[in-house]
Amino acid sequence: MSLLIQISDTHFGTEQAAVVAALYRLTQALKPDVAILSGDITQRARSRQFAAARRFLDELHVPKVMSIPGNHDIPLLDVFARMLYPYRNYMRAFGAELEPQLDCEAFRIVALNTTRPTRHKNGEVSPHQIERVTEQLRAARPTQLRIVVTHQPVQVMHPQDVENLLIGHEAAARAWVGAGADLMMGGHIHLPYVLPLKRMFPGLSRSAWVVQAGTAISSRTRAGIPNSVNVVHHECGAISCGIERWDFQATAGAFTCVAREQLVLDR
Length: 267
Hints:
It contains six helices and twelve strands. By secondary structure, the protein is α/β, with parallel strands linked by helices. It has a single domain (about 1-265), classed as 4-Layer Sandwich (Purple Acid Phosphatase, chain A, domain 2), CATH 3.60.21.10. A hairpin with a 4-residue loop joins strand 11 (about 240-250) and strand 12 (about 255-265). Helix 2 runs parallel beside helix 4 (about 90-95).
């Protein structure tokens, strides 16, 4: 059984020490094979915030790590830096690859940079990105769980979140599901949920799910929603995968599994 942990919207600069310590303990206990940081790693894209994020990532001791930038990971007020070298601080901490991929026994993961320096917080997926991800999904083996990672969501639960949808989400979702995607993971709105994509896009050729993460360690939680992470379980070749939501419980000082779903894969 392979494990993947999704850690999103850490917003370093607003991290809470007790929650960070609890997340270290959780990863030590679960020993995930893969960690995905799905954007908004820092609060204001400052060098010291990226340095803290890099130390955090190193101390997780997860064998394979993937990360993508979110809208908070490019400069906001320094317009010169935002336009000329928006990812400089990000790259110093996490390397030059803004759209990493992972091809291992249990998972085929394709991650996208959906930030745009010309947009404040809205994310966008281009036709070229849609086509490239489609080709990569088609190259996956039948035994792999096929995952696409974006920062902004491709499906939302509440009307007030519609403005946060990824620009180009419908074209992307239809193309990627048709090419074999099983999960589309994201963050941005600090609200964890698992939803079937057919709820928003009727007529899809296959079943697939949106897996959204809350903020993992930041004090910038959404009203009534604690810090949380997602854990994905998958056995290579299995016809289902497990999704767990782990919430930070302040009284216990620990992350606790509060929800489990077993998703039947469309094979």
